[in-house]
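Quarterly update from the structural biology core.
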Amino acid sequence: MVEILAAGTTGANWSLDAPSFEEGSHSPGVGLFIIALNPDLLAPDFSARMASQIERLSSKGIYVPGGCCDKDEIDLPSSLVVTLEEYCKKSIE
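Predicted structure, tokenized:
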């Protein structure tokens, strides 16, 4: 599924067709696909379920990246927010 989104929908090389990342003078021509989801739109109890799952994993000694963070938001530089907002406006037109 990741390759379908990252290569198929962007026109980039499929993994079997991409040149080596480590050798040669040509770019592998791989794609990039970014998706942002608001999980609460799909599962209104997502936040509570996720918190419970993180606690269960942590209690078993499993490292959860970002698990020590108590914030519900990610701080982004204002310049990045402006750039993203401008891009979204252009893509709607």
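The radius of gyration is 19 Å.
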